[in-house]
Amino acid sequence: MNAASKLALPTAARNACSGQWMSMKPRKFSRRAFLAAGLLAAPCVVVADALWLEPQCVKIRRLRLALEKPAHRFVHFTDLHHKGDRAHTQSVVNKINSLTPDFVCFTATSWKR
Question: Considering the entire predicted model, what is its pTM?
Answer without folding.
Answer: 0.48
